[in-house]
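In practice, a research group might receive sequence data for several interacting partners and want a quick structural hypothesis before committing to experiments. The following worked case mirrors that situation: the sequences arrive first, and a predicted assembly follows.
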Amino acid sequence: MAATPRPGAVDKRRLILDAAITVFAQQGFHHCRVSDVADEAGVAYGLVYHYFDSKEEMLNELFLERWQIMLDAIGEIDARDELPPREKLHLVAGFIIDSYRHEPDLMKVIIVEVTRAANSFGRIHLEKIREAYVKIAEIVESARQDGTFKQDISAQFAAMCFYGAIEQLLSGWIFDLLPQTEEEFERAKTLVVEAICGGLEVSPSPSTPAVSG
Amino acid sequence: MAATPRPGAVDKRRLILDAAITVFAQQGFHHCRVSDVADEAGVAYGLVYHYFDSKEEMLNELFLERWQIMLDAIGEIDARDELPPREKLHLVAGFIIDSYRHEPDLMKVIIVEVTRAANSFGRIHLEKIREAYVKIAEIVESARQDGTFKQDISAQFAAMCFYGAIEQLLSGWIFDLLPQTEEEFERAKTLVVEAICGGLEVSPSPSTPAVSG
DNA sequence: AGACTCGTTGACTGACGAGTCAATCTGGCT
DNA sequence: AGCCAGATTGACTCGTCAGTCAACGAGTCT
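A structural hypothesis for the assembly, expressed as tokens:
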């Protein structure tokens, strides 16, 4: 499999992975050919199979690599006990949005190709994805315990809503349904937290239970 | 193409579409063969191509058919002027969640294969998907105008968060990350609206802007 | 130099599966 | 009965592409 390249030598494995990001993002995982990745990397077809067992393995690698970085980041944010929960969520949202801002292709691949394939691929991905929800839920749970968050909304449920809102924003950017400017990215970080934590309503009704149809 | 079947005769076209729902949901659109659909429908391979031009057309058909129903439903909900915006959103959430409850396979296919894959398929779908966001945004906008919703969160942004939260819940059910019981479905309808409209926090800070890291 | 290892090449193979098509069936109509 | 139109069949074609492999190159050690 992969060997550590001599210093100064180009890391072909990395080169191929980066090419895969570009190609997967542009054409989609299922619609591109392995030869497209090789071409993009400026490398012979066979070399791809020197470093990876299969086309799918490249996708796995890209996902696991990036997702782990995110899990670590969320973990670190959660560990900063001096921060109030809302601020933690703000940092989490910021991290994910910045991930997209700096590596839109990679995030596109992860969201569009992996989340979607989570059913046909191994359970490893689902487990990793779940980890993120769990970590976010922990932040929410601490807020429920200190009384700032509502009791009747479970932490797990809230975490799904929070993450879903963020992922939807990324989807909006990915598919050009939302404007992509630096200001928008920055605003989104604050607004998504404001929307989920503070709610859309101006003055909430804390005692009034939700309307039922 | 398709002809109206004699009354009493089985509508083979419908039979094939229903089989496609099952097969696409189980194996995924890309991983299944057209013969799988034919087998599931108990029909000869060639008949699939009598009713549909391609494998993709079946998916298009399933999506457009169902999505239009949803767009109509949202439109009708929005038209009921006697309802407060929050209640409208509650009905929209209820409609989508019930769609999943009654036809989980179909919704799985739409979410997993179309909504998230709008990338590789034609832009027609994107336009249809956007319509849903726009309609939800209209509901939010009316709430902003009558002063119940915050001014600093745009209707479009709020609509994305709202829809994203709901789709994430469906994803959670689809991938068995959330429990699927009748009670959960019912609770979710109310809670997702409560989370987004009322917010997660017990007492919001209307004057205090969000903290910035 | 010779031998060995590991990176690199790209033509080739083999399987797979979408889509075709000529033949067959069915039921209605005259 | 004989004819026709549309439904139905499934074996076959044919392009595509993931994955293989035998050969070549470049650096290293003895």
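Before designing any experiment, note the following. The first helix of chain A runs from residue 12 to 27. Confidence is low (pLDDT under 50) at residues 1-8 of chain A.
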